[in-house]
DNA sequence: CTGAAAGCGCTAACAC
DNA sequence: GTGTTAGCGCTTTCAG
């Protein structure tokens, strides 16, 4: 029932080598021979055995993507970018859902080591720098999304966290807000750090004093944003706007406001990050930042596949893509006096 | 840099066969030998070559899942169920995002044919019955989620569409609704058909006349639901409740009501299906049906891996899991008089 | 342009 | 318990 290459060879009266050449588009085969071989392939319903190909050729034309959580729209979009790009370049993609478990994430690195994939993309990886650098030093082909690392052989694709955060804060300042709280994500993550940086940068440029009391941590979760906002309120310091480092936390803030009877945007403006679909449906709709997630996956995939095929690498190792502020109801008004 | 099994054998002073036995937990190795081998594995930082294993053993311990669209929460949850289960049973998972493209879906079947995966799970597949039956007849191991097929070798995991749809309609009838519209999904899909069946069944049992004019099609999309609702209104037939075959369409109905100034739930009750996260955030929140998506993936995965290992198959080929009606604001009131 | 043949790295008979 | 060895199905030199 399962035919092999040699069966095709016999049926078409040529050698296995020729069949292989036809199947791999080597140009050095007559049209006539090609046709004969293809006919036999059809008739036998032949499929090349992937394992044998991989073993012999020492490559799989497959790249892996490890994401924290496949349920999160941010990652799902990145996957689309990777998958579509890889598909057009003739590569397959293995998607690995670490399911918020760093141990699983580490497990998946084995796919590289045992040559199941030719390259690996890590989106918002929780792995330590040492691990990644060690892999790269061993000659493994890896790339990062949403993270930067100091190693010549690791391409990184990032969004302009500082820039868009600064845009967000400038937008709020333009609307007359002078006391803007910032709710941070996981404290040790680059995204959090850079977004804070953009926040501070904008304040500084507009000469609005930075007040550390207006910074709280929300761990990127709705619950975390909710609690962080309540802590801010309890401090008794006046503020009229919140910049949350992602939409989940912004949703938490929105919920807290509703419970506390604080009108949005009249008494409190909110801006998040990610352009989560919910931000459009909730009332009031939430302002946010739209990151080109698809593009993050796309650019890195092109780069990595280029590396795999020893293409001359023109571009930058660190690729930064632009994001866009999306103003909705939650920050559409002037600050209260 | 890359060591092979034979290197480990040499270093530990045993034969390749023994190393293989140690690595694959064959019990017939002394503890002492095992330790020596493992030491060499450590020292050499040895990783077995997957392609060679696959080629030699004729299996990959990998199962594939093909989903229509990885962005859709319904599928993401199913994937979690498959992945977690496979993981604990020592299987890897390849996730394939067909990206709403039937051609890609068909492409992915090649993974089975070329032995990249041992089994394939198709969630809400758009493939024709013939294709699936042909695969199964060839001895390929496949399983379906959200679809039924007449073939002894294809296990299917489904939700109780008829049952929960009947529950939905009974709930609306209990609230005094007598004119309940139904918005269907893709007309040729089993889910649509069975949900319609449940709707009709409940009406019949409660002796409420079925009116075909109250049925419209919305293709499972928000836009489709929106348009379908408008068509229903234009007909001028009075109705006070809508059962939409999924939440996307229910969102469309909700939007249309807002635009037309129809108060929910006072003038119009709405119930959807899927327990999409947005249904909780929108105002008014939407009643829906919570399907055990994780379980769908879990059950089928257990079944398929069992088949791969020739375990005696006790259970049913067709596995049906129970769903639960979640009543929220959009259907929380008595029908208007 | 085509064929012969070696061998990718591993496992599973089969011996001992 | 452990070793020897054939061979999984393919690609790729090297000849011709």
Automatic annotation (TrEMBL), chains A, B:
Keywords: DNA-binding, Transcription, Transcription regulation. Gene3D superfamilies: 3.40.50.2300, lambda repressor-like DNA-binding domains (1.10.260.40). InterPro entries: HTH_LacI, LacI/GalR-like_sensor, Lambda_DNA-bd_dom_sf, Peripla_BP_I. The keyword DNA-binding applies. Residues 7-57 form the HTH lacI-type domain. CDD domains: HTH_LacI, PBP1_LacI_sugar_binding-like. GO terms for molecular function: DNA-binding transcription factor activity; transcription cis-regulatory region binding. This is LacI family transcriptional regulator. It comes from Cohnella endophytica.
